[in-house]
Fold this protein.
Amino acid sequence: MEKKARVLIDCRDEKGLVYKISKVFYDRNLNIDNNREFVDQEIEKFFMRSEVSGMFEINELQDALKEVTPADARIRVIEPTPKKIIIMATKESHAIGDILIRYADGELDAQIECVISNHDTLEGLVRRFDIPFFHVPAEGLSREEHEKHVMALISEFEFDYIVLAKYMRILTAAFVETYEQKIINIHHSFLPAFIGANPYKQAYERGVKIIGATAHYVTNDLDEGPIIAQDVIPVSHRFEWRDMQRAGRDVEKIVLSRALALVLNDRVFVNGNKTVVF
Amino acid sequence: MEKKARVLIDCRDEKGLVYKISKVFYDRNLNIDNNREFVDQEIEKFFMRSEVSGMFEINELQDALKEVTPADARIRVIEPTPKKIIIMATKESHAIGDILIRYADGELDAQIECVISNHDTLEGLVRRFDIPFFHVPAEGLSREEHEKHVMALISEFEFDYIVLAKYMRILTAAFVETYEQKIINIHHSFLPAFIGANPYKQAYERGVKIIGATAHYVTNDLDEGPIIAQDVIPVSHRFEWRDMQRAGRDVEKIVLSRALALVLNDRVFVNGNKTVVF
Amino acid sequence: MEKKARVLIDCRDEKGLVYKISKVFYDRNLNIDNNREFVDQEIEKFFMRSEVSGMFEINELQDALKEVTPADARIRVIEPTPKKIIIMATKESHAIGDILIRYADGELDAQIECVISNHDTLEGLVRRFDIPFFHVPAEGLSREEHEKHVMALISEFEFDYIVLAKYMRILTAAFVETYEQKIINIHHSFLPAFIGANPYKQAYERGVKIIGATAHYVTNDLDEGPIIAQDVIPVSHRFEWRDMQRAGRDVEKIVLSRALALVLNDRVFVNGNKTVVF
Amino acid sequence: MEKKARVLIDCRDEKGLVYKISKVFYDRNLNIDNNREFVDQEIEKFFMRSEVSGMFEINELQDALKEVTPADARIRVIEPTPKKIIIMATKESHAIGDILIRYADGELDAQIECVISNHDTLEGLVRRFDIPFFHVPAEGLSREEHEKHVMALISEFEFDYIVLAKYMRILTAAFVETYEQKIINIHHSFLPAFIGANPYKQAYERGVKIIGATAHYVTNDLDEGPIIAQDVIPVSHRFEWRDMQRAGRDVEKIVLSRALALVLNDRVFVNGNKTVVF
């Protein structure tokens, strides 16, 4: 039976890769509906994402691609079915709200398994959408104890990604490593960037004329982790810090939703501390 | 001797094109330094731009590609040497000035053969850059008579593109057809678009909050022609129409220079009344 | 008792207006917390918006301002209480969804009285937020008959503004005149602008590189009506028209919400077919 | 004789300032062609910029304004004549080139007194515009010795502002203090911001999706100094650091020219480490 797949390949670059990979598709009489490649010349790494359709068997295709690519190749043949996601949030509703509206609309190419929060503020909103909400309070607990409860909860679900939709707690290295390349975050980041508590207040005090937001994978780098999407909006001296925060929320939610759509459509490769976005 | 080329192919889409084309490169032991394809699914048309390097002979490569592609294929194997351009302008200096500064800097990947204008306003500026300037007055002449003089002048030069850097006269169909797909123009276009005399005044009277500019190939379509690049800037009720014009100039010059760089690097395919920009 | 008000004045310009108006405030010992003026030099019209606080009586203040301003002056002294709004929508959820999330969050400075739709698609979503939803079908009815039902419904509510959040029916002149300067709409508008059915398909076929949206007051002008806010996003040849539509939705919802916030905060003056936005 | 002036006032906020100041204008029968105020509520500071026209004597007007404003008031009554500027640059031509084209066009509301550079690279370009160029080499000199030569040169000119158009040397505290609030700089700044050598390479290695630029007053703050204008452009994984630099140059030049126009029109107040831009 005719079917579709997204084929993602990344490996060290070598001569003939496009030829060898497209030969595998050609020999199986597959259509290439969409094809994008990129070579990071600096580190000689090859990235390719193809959307193919036709008669094929996933494992066979994967094995055939394995044979024609270098030993280090990561090959993923993915059927385009909705991913499963877990959302973590705290109190603010703009980022999670934007996802929920898209979800209710059928625009989000994902199944939301549950929402986990360290506060119960968002419980009402989430329940309006018939999605399980779990309140895991952090008061009186060490970071590790709190995360133990969260991880126990997460372990009850199958999922592809954890989306931090303004989850305001810092994650431990252990947590991040457990879900490597599976955690997406939205970060308020500015020109210049402000780290730490109340970045909008810092931005206000610095008198910036532009504020922005960054969606990224969460890693244990001191810095943020591979950036998926960024955007900005102009502000002026008439913006008090609360106005900046309000304006910033619009950018945050749009950038997170944009990044999430890219990730759910398997359009993002992690390349060290950078990304390749097709 | 090792050399580089840009290979541009467009033809009706069919199964195996990427495979067959990359096989031609592979068989000649060429490196693919950069590769981009796009299929316009609606009209089933295939576009590909590859930067290759290695030992090859241009005609032989072109013939080999001809053999593996459909009969309608347009195949261009282009050595990455600077293009030759002719600039046409009228009185305003912002668009041509931006090109001249890039030219003086060596940033522009082109040789400016000459500047042709229906006024002598820009003569001083152009001569500062040691570029031939020709004043071809239009007073008292029909459009056809004036263009006859311009075309006689153009015929003395070898060139790849004519850049209309705020050339304020409408071109005849005959002129446009003579230099098909060779004329690039910058158009002040807005939200909503304003056509005709003094578009900035129209935009002002309409009370728009954003103004923009469009760089495009010139065709004989009623409408503009295939769009290469567009950009916008915000304005407010505080902008009189001259302020809008001033702000618009910055967008116009940046958009034209951006489009020109794309065209000079052979990154733009014309696809009917649209473009594919790699 | 100390209170706050927004004072909005527009009238023909004449010498001394700022002096005379600020004298009224000064004589009553009011604080000016925020003050913005604008003179449209072309038509010699004066606009002023002041946020004042102190001990005052609204009618007395209004009368005092009347006395020092020209006969044509429109003077509004408005207490900063939440406005009442009616939302009209059709099937798409992005624009209304964005408003609902802000509403649930307490960010929207308004009370949503009800949602009226010519379809029942959005009923489930609206009811999640405990807001009355009225389905007023249009099938088999003339435009006038349908609007008669809608207006009967509207007449049961007190309201300040009607927000068309992707309401896809054209309103009659009679409807628009009934609620003059009270109807806000979001319009998909592009570079160049596309009017009529399926503008995203038209934009796709035109090959634009930017799409945008316009929030405006609804009038009976052939054209749109006074523009409140506009914004755009870049697109490319890789966007099919459905991708453009999806991208356009993000701009539409943000622009509508931005315009709505401006209107709810009494920051927008209508100035002929333009606006002054403070 | 009828004349025009820009009146700039900043002082601690107190009740009645708008009234008292506009009374001074009213008593002299002056027209207010444009008027903007802003109160920084956090530090209770008042800013006002008025464009007035009529029959007046500058000193008398200044004195009258002094009388009605708090003791700390800084009052400037400025005739709108072109300012005099000195440009300092190093090797790159994009920022200075953009200024020169505007200058040649008459768009720049300033007289360029001279260009000073620590290299002779730009001499040819500057001389094309008949502007004095001074090469002050820094080789073999301490920072202080080099600046001594520069300052000796500067002292020969009357000027209002020094524009650093990609001047790549760090200025000493002594230099900065000598020309307090008179030095404008363009800074490549990103999301997140990169300080130090080759910021574009740092941005590339961080994998940012947006790069930007900041125009600001130069101060001795560790950080940059009051920001006048900022802007950004999107980039992608396909940009090598030289592509980022090339794209960044377009933003740098536009942002510097925009900031310069604001400063030359007396539209910028320095407010601590921030600005108020009218």
Remarks:
- The longest strand of chain B covers residues 3-12.
